[in-house]
Amino acid sequence: MTGRPAATAVRLGGLDRVPGITVLGHYGAERWTDGRVLSEDPPPGVALVRRELPGLLDRVGAPEGTWIEDKDRSLAVHTRRTADPDGALALLARPLAALAERAELRVEPGRMVIELRPRGVDKGAALTGLARSARARTVLYAGDDLGDLPAFEAVADLRAHGVAGLTVCSSSDEVTAVADAADLVVPGPSGLCGLLTDLTASIRAPGA
């Protein structure tokens, strides 16, 4: 599950080689399975933001290094490359919120980024839908950004309804709220890979 297009995640991860995998892109608005991407058209507000965002950044004096990522169904403004990423976010937060309101989109803050995307779509709703459609008995969700918090909440709700669940933070000093909300914290992507490798070995072990 990713905020990026599903096809991008499949390409970057070579996920088309994994039998039976489902990839949810754009926070669940896209579903990739068996080599096909299923999705609805993005709302018209996305096109409005695409047109107006460059001019808005110029008008408010966005600092050098601010850049726009067009994800097709949403747009994100990154400040990581600026001299003061947190200050740049603070400068842009209110104008971006006003643009999102006019476009009937929602604002999703993240690590040195503000994303404008369709309302009613988040990783929590996507995870709940996937778990129910798969009739999952166990769920593990790992993330490292503020956009993953709704999925953590979804795992807690699934647990309350009898589905075993675990939330994992791939540790980042930039977003402590995710680590605070997780059941388990691992040291970054390498730590998550180690956890999944150990879990796989345990499942495949004789007598498991």
Describe what you observe in this structure:
This protein is α+β, with helices and mostly antiparallel strands. The chain folds into 3 domains: 1-39, no CATH class; 44-118, Trehalose-6-phosphate phosphatase related protein, domain 2 (Alpha-Beta Plaits), CATH 3.30.70; 122-208, Rossmann fold (3-Layer(aba) Sandwich). The protein has 7 helices and 10 strands. The strands form 3 sheets. The chain has a 4-stranded antiparallel beta sheet, with helices on one face. Strands 1-2-3 form a 3-stranded antiparallel beta sheet, with helices on one face. Helix 2 (44-60) packs across helix 3 (85-102) and helix 4 packs parallel to helix 5. The two termini are 28 Å apart. The mean pLDDT is 93.
Summary, kept brief:
The protein is of the alpha+beta class and 208 residues long. The protein has helices at residues 6-13, 44-60, 85-102, 123-133, 149-160, 176-181, 188-204; strands spanning 22-25, 30-33, 36-39, 67-70, 75-78, 105-110, 113-118, 138-143, 164-170, 184-186.
Sum up the structure in keywords.
single chain, 208 residues, alpha+beta, Alpha-Beta Plaits, Rossmann fold, 3 domains, 4-stranded antiparallel β-sheet, 3-stranded antiparallel β-sheet
Radius of gyration: 18 Å
Classify the fold: give the CATH topology of the largest domain.
Rossmann fold
% residues in beta strands = 15-25%
**Biggest β-sheet: count, sense, barrel?**
4 strands, antiparallel
Structural shape: globular
Determine the structural class based on helices, strands and strand pairing: alpha+beta
Mean pLDDT: 93
Helix content: 40-55%
Terminal Cα separation, in Å? Answer: 28 Å
Low-confidence stretches: none
Order of helices and strands: HEEEHEEHEEHEHEHEH
Whole-number count of domains: 3
What is the β-strand count? 10
> What's the CATH architecture name of the largest domain?
3-Layer(aba) Sandwich
Spatial strand sequence of the major β-sheet: 4-5-7-6
Q: Tally the helices: what do you get?
A: 7
The CATH class of the largest domain is Alpha Beta
